[in-house]
Design brief:
Layout: E1 12-15, H1 21-36, H2 42-58, E2 63-69, E3 76-82, H3 102-109, E4 112-117, E5 123-128
Length: 130
């Protein structure tokens, strides 16, 4: 009988798309960072809040949040999934706009970020923190 090593499941938070989603996601990130001994979770909480808010406002269906440490460089990664096909982007800078700056802020605060469409529909927006 073959014994295959299984990778541990990454905990995920499944959220209903509503106004409480971002707060629940912030608490989830704070708890994960505390487990890892990362005392400064401000950027992680801000990033997940922005990504979840985008999923709530522009996406579709339930929102799934995963937070894990990249096994290659040991940096935290935040992933937010939703069922919408519309891909997020950073709009042209408009100093008179009253919204639409969340991804610009995320891009300035993280090492890298991106979005990938899923074969089964929807997308994952992710950010790797410093």
């Amino acid at each position: 009988m073959s014994t295959a090593a299984m990778a541990p499941e990454i905990p995920r938070l499944i959220l209903e798309p509503n106004e409480k989603a971002a707060g629940r996601a912030r608490r989830f990130v704070a708890a994960r960072f505390a487990e890892w001994g990362i005392a400064d979770d401000d950027i992680g909480r801000l990033v997940v809040s922005e990504l979840v808010t985008n999923a709530y406002v522009h996406g579709e269906g339930r929102i799934v949040v995963r937070v894990f440490v990249d096994k290659h460089d040991r940096l935290p990664v935040v992933e937010v999934w939703d069922g919408g096909a519309k891909l997020p982007f950073i709009p042209a800078l408009d100093c008179t706009a009253t919204c639409g700056r969340g991804l610009l802020l995320v891009a300035e605060l993280v090492r890298e970020w991106g979005v990938r469409p899923l074969d089964e529909g929807g997308k994952v927006t992710w950010a790797k923190l410093h």
